[in-house]
Design goal:
Blueprint (H helix, E strand, L loop, with lengths): L14 H14 L17 E6 L2 E6 L3 E2 L7 E2 L7 H4 L4 E6 L2 E6 L3 E3 L5 E2 L7 E3 L13 E6 L2 E6 L3 E4 L13 E4 L11 E4 L9 E6 L3 E2 L5 E5 L5 E2 L6 E2 L1 E10 L3 E7 L7 E11 L7 E9 L5 E3 L6 E9 L4 E3 L1 E6 L12 E6 L3 E6 L8 E10 L8 E9 L5 E3 L7 E9 L6 E7 L8 E7 L3 E6 L7 E10 L7 E10 L5 E3 L7 E8 L6 E6 L13 E4 L6 E4 L8 E10 L26 E7 L7 E4 L6 E2 L2 E2 L9 E11 L2 E13 L5 H25 L1
Parallel strand pairs: 20-26, 42-50
Antiparallel strand pairs: 1-2, 3-4, 5-6, 6-8, 7-9, 10-11, 12-13, 14-15, 15-17, 16-19, 17-18, 20-21, 21-24, 22-23, 22-25, 25-27, 28-29, 29-32, 30-31, 30-33, 33-34, 35-36, 36-39, 37-38, 37-40, 40-41, 43-46, 44-45, 44-49, 47-48, 49-50
């Protein structure tokens, strides 16, 4: 068969195809067999569509039916909110559709009130604890799934309700622990100032005549708001008086044994004498003596030629077994007025001069030279001198001496042929009254106070400092030192650790009574994170090894992993609080927080985190890094205490031209292998 001329018409093999197209075109706009337009009969919730050359009515998305007489809404929520919308949701059906809402305590990751889950949106827990003050004063917020709970912070106790509590449903309030007045201790008195807050220490000293053989007596304010009493007690001191003897005719000496000797013991010496001459009256006298000597002695003003009974005992409240001695004084004619005398001390600063002569009627002049020094002060010196004239045989002179001072007193009998002198030493005790007032703290670690003393006189102050941390039970700091100052308003700054509660006892060495003040130091930046720095160029990112930091400067609350664009590294501030989660950012141009772990959840040794593992750490999603971007990954440690927050940061890695992580690479490899298997299967099926 010959070939036809060009342009004569289409090839014969195309004619059937053209015929079919013409038929299709003719039926496309034609009415139905019954003469009606099918599209005109579609239901209001249906759409007219052409299928296999015919026009048919199909119900719209969200409706089911025949498309012409019936299109009924399809209830997508009938399978349950969890199946349709995901966890923590409620499903709401609408005509031809539905929408999802997160339950109370959760929010949608698209940051909108409603969502459709086909865009990857889901409900994540809302951290209500990001709102400060939610649990009222003294409360600590703990986030839970879909809600939160309130607990009282350390140093506070719940009142008027349960714990944990919710501020909208419970009336619980957190009140600062205040133990009030410390308990009374039998035979003991409370000394100094004390704090009634948690960890406050009340100190006691035994009353005169009592002692605590086991050591110092203290009571501590506990976390229950009550004082923990000491197991030690004050027991009575029984003084035993032995070896009483007479010397120099009218002087008495004895020894004592009372275990632990207090600085001073008061004695009562009862004297009763009967003259040999029955016509003379009886001589009775009581002498008081206070001394810290273990071999006390006293010289008495006794009559010559008299039988005496001397009873020696301790003054109340101290008890003793009395000692009695009897003796006879020499006759007057056996004694000569040779200018010899002796001196006894009583009432701490008073002297009694006892001459051997009993001759009455002669006047005598004594010269006193007094020199006082304090062993703990190089520049302290108290010197005075005066003359004293008397007719008495046993005159008494009381000196005006400073407390806590060692004195040398030289007494010379003027006019005596031999110029007889007696030298004695007196150690005055510390004052029983308080010499420090108006003590206060400033600049967190410094103290100032008012000294009640003679102007321009140097004083030494003894410091005893105890430091404790509620969050670090093994921590304990104790310091003892002294300073000297002649100022009436001294100041001192102490070397204290941050984040610590301190009790400071301050005592002037010239006084027995200390003052106690409490100080709390604020936290400082936690130690820098211990990380090994990596620089990654297009390769997989290694795992972050997180090591637990030591709580040197305050309690550590959390560890955070921040992902920033590399360009922001130079301007990033570690104290920045504005870092948001991955889903709350419209873009990652400002960076985001990839992980947050509470300090209690970090093991003591170490843990590893893979950046981009698609897991949640706390409330933050660890999203994969975008390929081809440059990132800086920072590890931040946060400390928080007493409404103060401090941070320390370290750059863990710089990522340039970011690639897939090891986990992502494994996923891509598995996916590629699956594609190859499917293609191979289809090839065999086609054959």
């Amino acid at each position: 068969m010959g070939r036809g001329p060009r342009g004569a018409g289409p090839p014969r093999r195309l004619l059937p195809l053209l015929l079919l197209l013409g038929l299709a075109r003719g039926t496309a706009g034609a009415p139905g067999a019954d003469g009606l337009d099918v599209c005109a009969t579609c239901h209001e919730h249906a759409t007219c569509q052409q299928r296999e050359g015919k026009k048919i009515c199909i119900c719209n998305y969200g409706f089911v039916g025949n498309g012409r007489t019936q299109c009924v809404d399809k209830n997508e929520c009938q399978f349950g909110a969890t199946v349709v919308c995901g966890n923590h949701t409620s499903c709401h059906n609408t005509p031809g559709g539905f929408y999802c809402i997160c339950l109370e305590g959760y929010r949608a990751t698209n940051n909108k009130k409603t969502f459709i889950p086909n865009d990857g949106t889901f409900c994540t827990d809302v951290d209500e604890c990001e709102v400060s003050g939610l649990c009222r004063h003294g409360g600590r917020c703990v986030n839970t799934h879909g809600s939160f709970e309130c607990y009282c912070m350390d140093g506070y106790l719940p009142r008027n309700g349960p714990e944990p509590f919710h501020p909208t449903t419970d009336t619980t309030s957190c009140t600062e622990i205040n133990c009030g007045n410390p308990p009374e201790m039998r035979h003991a008195i409370l000394v100094g100032n004390h704090s009634s807050r948690l960890g406050g220490v009340a100190r006691y000293v035994c009353q005169e005549g009592f002692e605590s053989p086991g050591g110092k007596i203290t009571s501590v304010c506990t976390e229950k708001g009550t004082w923990r009493e000491s197991t030690l007690t004050c027991t009575e001191i029984l003084t035993k008086i032995d070896d009483v003897s007479v010397f120099n005719d009218t002087c008495v000496r004895w020894q004592i044994n009372s275990g632990r000797i207090n600085p001073k013991i008061a004695y009562v010496i009862s004297v009763k004498g009967q003259r040999l001459d029955p016509m003379e009256s009886v001589h009775e006298e009581t002498v008081n003596l206070t001394t810290d000597s273990r071999t006390p002695e006293v010289c008495l003003a006794l009559y010559p030629g008299t039988n005496y009974t001397v009873n020696i005992s301790t003054a109340p409240p101290r008890r003793s077994v009395p000692a009695v001695i009897g003796f006879q004084t020499a006759e007057d004619d056996l004694l000569e007025d040779d200018g010899i005398f002796n001196i006894s001390i009583f009432n701490e600063t008073c002297l009694q001069l006892n001459r051997h002569s009993r001759k009455v009627g002669s006047e005598h002049m004594y010269q006193f030279t007094v020199l006082g020094q304090r062993w703990y002060l190089d520049n302290f010196c108290h010197a005075t001198s005066f003359n004293f004239t008397t007719w008495e045989r046993a005159p008494v002179v009381c000196l005006d001496l400073y407390p806590a001072t060692d004195y040398t007193v030289n007494v010379t009998l003027l006019g005596s042929p031999k110029g007889h002198s007696v030298q004695i030493t007196i150690a005055t005790p510390p004052a029983v009254k308080q010499t420090i007032s108006n003590i206060s703290g400033f600049n967190e670690t410094c103290l100032r106070w008012r000294s009640i003393k003679t102007a321009d006189m140097e004083e030494m102050y003894l410091f005893h400092i105890w430091g404790q941390r509620w969050y670090q039970k093994e921590f304990a700091q104790e310091m003892t030192f002294n300073i000297s100052s002649s100022s009436r308003d001294p100041e001192v700054c102490l070397d204290l650790h941050p984040g610590t509660d301190y009790n400071v006892s301050l005592r002037a060495l010239s006084s027995e009574l200390p003052v106690v003040i409490s100080l709390t130091t604020q936290i400082t930046e936690p130690p820098l994170p211990e990380v090994e720095f990596f620089t990654v160029h297009g390769g997989p990112l290694p795992r972050l090894r997180l090591r637990k930091a030591k709580e040197k400067n305050g309690p550590i609350s959390s560890y955070q992993v921040l992902v920033l664009p590399l360009a922001l590294q130079s301007t990033f501030s570690c104290d920045s609080e504005g870092t948001s989660s991955f889903f709350s950012n419209a873009s990652d141009a400002d960076g985001y927080m990839a992980a947050e772990l509470l300090a209690k959840d970090v093991p003591d040794d170490a843990m590893e985190i893979l950046i981009g593992d698609r897991l949640y750490y706390g409330e933050y999603y660890n999203a994969p890094l975008k390929r081809g971007n440059d990132y800086c990954i920072i590890l931040r440690i946060t400390s928080e205490w007493n409404k103060v927050r401090r941070h320390s940061c370290a750059v863990w890695a710089q990522v340039k031209d970011s690639s897939l992580t090891l986990l992502q690479m494994a996923g891509v490899g598995l996916g590629s292998m699956a594609v190859v298997i499917i293609l191979t299967f289809l090839s065999f099926s086609a054959v």
